[in-house]
Amino acid sequence: MATVSFVDETTAGDRTEAWHLEIFEERLALREVIRRRVFQEVAEHNARQSEVFRGLVQPGDTERTLNGWRMSKPRRVDAEEQFRRAVEAFGRNGFVVLVDDGQVEDLDAQVELRNGTEISFLKLVPLVGG
């Protein structure tokens, strides 16, 4: 079993505090790593029933805030829908994935996981005026 760290970063230099997930497999496809990350953050949100969703991609019917996406009222988020949105965002270069500082470009690529592996989700921020 490996304890893997997840970090969100932006090209503007913002970085969230790492959070950890225990994964029993030594290798997983990147698609499955993303799925597990998304399902974990959705489960945590749904347990809290907060008005702000903090996750990899924006749920529908929300507005961006400083630290997530604000909902008009607290509601459950659909994990399958969030996973679909995450895969679409990856496909259109909405974010890149770095595993221990090496970029993984293919959703079907196998990622080696061990204690201390850090997976960074680098969200691409559009340049102003460019």
Key phrases:
5-stranded mixed sheet, Ribosomal Protein L25, Chain P, single chain, 130 residues, globular, alpha+beta, 3-stranded antiparallel sheet, 2 helices
Write a compact overview of the structure shown.
It is built from 2 helices and 10 strands; from the N terminus they run βββαβββαββββ. It has helices spanning 30-48, 79-91, and strands spanning 2-10, 19-23, 27-29, 52-53, 62-65, 68-71, 95-99, 102-104, 110-112, 118-123.
Summarize the structure in words.
There is one protein chain. The protein is of the alpha+beta class and about 130 residues long. The chain has a single domain, classed as Beta Barrel (Ribosomal Protein L25, Chain P). The protein is about 25% helix and about 35% strand. The protein contains two helices and ten strands; from the N terminus they run E-E-E-H-E-E-E-H-E-E-E-E. The strands form three sheets. Strands 2-1-10-7-8 form a five-stranded mixed beta sheet, covered by helices on one side. Helix 1 crosses helix 2 (about 80-90). The relative contact order is 0.25. The mean pLDDT is about 90.
Low-confidence stretches: none
Spatial strand arrangement across the major sheet = 2-1-10-7-8
The fraction of residues in strands falls at 25-35%
Can you count the helices?
A: 2
Please provide the ordered H/E string of secondary-structure elements. Answer: EEEHEEEHEEEE
User: Gyration radius, to the nearest Å?
Assistant: 15 Å
Amount of helix: 10-25%
Q: Please give the domain count.
A: 1
Number of strands: 10
Structural class: alpha+beta
Indicate the multimeric state.
Answer: single chain
Shape: globular
CATH topology descriptor: Ribosomal Protein L25, Chain P
What is the average of the pLDDT values?
91
